[in-house]
Fold this protein.
Amino acid sequence: MIAYLANLATIVAIFGILASTLNVAIGHAGIFSVAHAVFFGLGAYAGAQTAMLLVPDPLLALLVAALIAGGLSLCLALPALRVRGEYFVAASLGLQMVATTLFSELKPLTGGIGGLVGIPRPELFGVTITALPLALATLALILLATHLLARGSFGRTLRAIRDAESAAEALGKHVAVAKTLAVAFACAGAGMAGALFAFHMAFVNVESFTLDQSVLVMAMVIVGGTGTLWGPLLGAALLLALPAGLSFLPFIPPTEVGAVQQILYGLAMTLLMIFRPAGLVGDLGRGKVAH
Amino acid sequence: MLFLQLLQGGVQTGALYALTAAGFALIFGATRIFHFAHGAAFTLAGYAFLMAWNAGWPWPLGALAAIAVAVLFGVAIEQLVYRPIGRHEGGFFTVFVAAFGVSIVVQNLVGMIAGRGFAVIDTPLSRATEVLPDLWIAPVFYVAIGVSALLFLALSLFLTRSHAGVALRALAQNPDLIRTYGLSSTRLSILAFALGSALAAPAAILTGMTVGLNEAMGHHVMLISMAATIVGGVGNLKGAALAGLLLGIAESVALAFVEPQWAEAVSFVVLFGFILFRPSGLFGVAVAR
Amino acid sequence: MAAITVENASRSFGGVQAVAGVSITLPAGAVTALVGPNGAGKTTLFNLITGNLRADSGDIRLDGAPILGLRPWQIARRGVARSFQDLRLFTHMTVRENVLAATETGSWFWQPGGRAARATREARVEKALERTGLARLAEERAIDLAYAERKFLSVARILAAEAEVWLLDEPTSGLDLASRRHFSGILREAAQQGKAICLIEHNLDVVVELADRIAFLDQGRVLAEGEPQAILRNPELAAIYFGDRPQAVEATP
């Protein structure tokens, strides 16, 4: 039972990081990426390879993962600077599809469909630890960073660009720099989540980094509430608890639990968009955007 | 002959892509809604025909059922999902998320009811014969080409000759008309969804006869339709159809040079390149920004 | 002293000359009104000055230094601020945040200058809110404001940005008399403090009440520049403005 809870907590923390960082792009910068799992995957492969080829030092792995995911985030920043709206969603979908193929085909780097097996346990100062404390610490750091970012001038710059890009530029904002930084921050965070995921699972393959995963993370942000501090984490916990909750319902045949869960989650997305588009925590209808 | 064989496959796939893409482009042109659940109409229509066929219905009845299911789905999503979101001025992302939710529901419902994995609609049309040395063609190839050509002819006649068709085209070329059109834009929007979804039905049936159906294929169909619409130039039906055809051919011919698993990526590399360097598409005049 | 000098600037869109060889100066400490029928090229001229559009030819200078070819954000940071006809407020941010954002030009993770600079910025924001009468609405979101309040918010952003050149696109349209007086007061005060103010205005009452100088534009050209009374009394210009276009109009020097 304790192992089960520890596992759930680690996964919630990892997806909390993913959702919180995606929220910076979606909620603050208005960059609607449907490719967050790409950077989650990049971080996972980078972290896993660091641990397997060099040392299983989690701090080094997190750093490498953040650098690689943050660096390659230019692939996402470029279309974000060129187009917006549906076109950007289309571009990020395209990026996601191409990346999925790359992940399954670049076997020397990613192990292909079989994935990378036997990722060592993280060792901090010579002591072997689990991923849970690392994930919680990283989550806390990310939440603190997004909180400061949302309250500070950078968050204001991003929201100004989101609401009226030309007016922000006319007030001296360097739109390209701000958008690129926001995307890099979000993707570097996703990369760190990836490295933690690799340590936790000891095995990674492309199945965790597909379009479905990107949409799941996006749904977490939206269910929780875009632009809020705690919303994405709440959304992550809710959507991850859903399968666990469903498996306790006796009348659903075990083979259909996955499908029922997917149906509920699809329905929840649609109904929320119709009736409560600002999410559970967000309240865009009145008052200011909560931080 | 390998090249010819690939080209034949590409034209067949491309003709079907062109149909679904034209449906997507028609809907987008008339309503400015990026109908991300377009793939779900395709899946539903394909499985409706499959079930009718397996139940022993004659094919025209099955085809009618498939079209009816697609049209019903299109009109229902317009009325129940997009319209309420449009009423509280939801942004495109709200629309995207809601549509994605719908397609997830459809995919899993179809999987639960009809079973998961590939299902081929087995008809005499699907059996290939060797027409030239090493070139195998099934009769369904000719059917696919013929049906697509016929439907495009009918569609362009409708869009140029009928009152409603002309109104739809006017909307596509000048989105501001949507606002000034007032009441009748509601009916036009329903018409666009009905027509656009209906176009997915023949494509789905023929896909079921050629490569087979799969409950998860809606995603792929939606992505290809979207890619073709953007590559072809938004607001340009012919452009979307032509781009769909080209994407189908590119995916297939690429097999001569790369491993099959890369084929799908080809379309998306093309899409990504277009968005970066020519967001107005092949034939578009409107710039995306 | 001239804050902005535009010399012989032209810009065409696919064969249509929107701005055709315009030369104009916007002196510091004065309110200049751009007057002219719709499509005269007034907003295009704004866009050329702010760098949103690039002039095909000509020269644009700010305090003597060339700004042609700079990006809009670079020109903004040199002290040129503008408002938009459709306002373009940061709709989902509070009034205070809207104005605060105007004082923060750094686009990186933090602003230069540390705590002291931050206190200065906040003081500027308070002053701008006070002057525009928005202080009591500081925590409201821009989207929840009434029409007149939104107009004041768009000028509060410029006020707080402490720009030297103000380009205002129809700032007083749709305001009632009291609000218009309040608005004019803000602009006159800014002009007295040495700002160069330029507004596009269709209401000739406002022009007479507010402007020190008028530049009359038609079909991309400056037909006349000078004292408001003199220009408005010119019957040929009045004919153009009120739509009775004579067959040929010679540009008055």
